[in-house]
Write a structure and sequence with these properties.
This protein has about 220 residues and is α+β, with helices and mostly antiparallel strands. Helix content is about 30%, strand content about 30%. It has 8 helices and 10 strands. The protein has helices spanning about 20-30, 80-90, 110-115, 120-125, 140-150, 180-185, 200-210, 210-215, and strands spanning about 15, 35-40, 40-50, 75, 95, 105-110, 125-135, 155-165, 165-175, 190-195. The strands form 3 sheets. A 4-stranded antiparallel beta sheet has the order 8-9-7-10, with helices on both faces. A 3-stranded mixed beta sheet has the order 1-2-3. It has a 3-stranded mixed beta sheet with strand order 4-5-6. The chain is elongated and about 70 Å long. The two termini are about 25 Å apart.
């Protein structure tokens, strides 16, 4: 899945010599968590909205360079790694750099997640299954083999949780032969956490995800 077309170059960046008042106004007028500070279009760091309380309007951005955070993604970074950058840095805006370390623009979390939600995993009709197995024992190739050996199409899957060395995996597949698939997973020592034959689980996933709630409903 390509997301480069979602790079946003209309959101401003600030130079280190600008008044910090400009950044304060930016945060007050938007819901973004961060904004980039650049010099010669190269990233120096990011200001965090959470630091607004310490900003003084009569100072310059360079006075707060020790508050800068440092994170970014590259233009060629995969969409999964982009999502990880959002989550790891508790950000809803991430700068995108080219091979010369120049800032091309930003990824906005709402745009990236919208691309994800428009994938066949969410849009195609099918059945949802949530399974669990030891982190050292599961295999996506094995999961695909189990589904497809029961004459059902695998539409996608991803890890949705890890706890005590047990991995939780959510998969979406065609609606045929669900009982046979469940029995096969049990034979391969997978625990069945959830299974249904419609898309209600997807609606719950969209509505109840803490990550989406935090960054899409600001």
């Amino acid at each position: 899945m390509q997301i480069q077309s979602n790079i946003n170059n209309t959101i401003p960046m600030f130079t280190i010599g600008e008044p910090v008042e400009n950044a304060i106004k930016f945060f007050n007028d938007t819901t973004f968590s961060h904004v980039a500070v650049v010099e010669d279009n190269r990233l120096l760091g990011l200001l965090n909205e959470n630091d607004l309380e310490v900003f003084e309007v009569n100072k310059k951005i360079e006075d707060y360079k020790y508050n800068f955070e440092s994170f970014f993604v590259r233009k060629e970074t995969s969409w999964l790694d982009v999502l990880e950058a959002f989550a790891r840095n508790e950000a809803n805006l991430v700068p995108v750099l080219n091979e010369k370390d120049q800032v091309l623009g930003y990824y906005d979390i709402t745009d990236v997640v919208s691309v994800f939600i428009d994938t066949p995993f969410f849009t195609e009709p099918g059945s949802i299954l949530v399974i669990a197995k030891g982190a050292k024992d599961y295999s996506f190739s094995e999961i695909a083999q189990i589904v497809e050996s029961n004459n059902t199409k695998l539409l996608g899957g991803f890890i949705t949780g890890t706890e005590n060395d047990v991995v939780q995996i959510t998969i979406k597949m065609g609606t045929a032969n669900m009982n046979e698939i469940l029995q096969s997973f049990r034979r391969y020592n997978y625990n069945i956490l959830f299974g249904n034959g419609d898309d209600q689980f997807l609606e719950d996933l969209k509505q109840r995800s803490d990550y989406l709630d935090k960054y899409l409903n600001v």
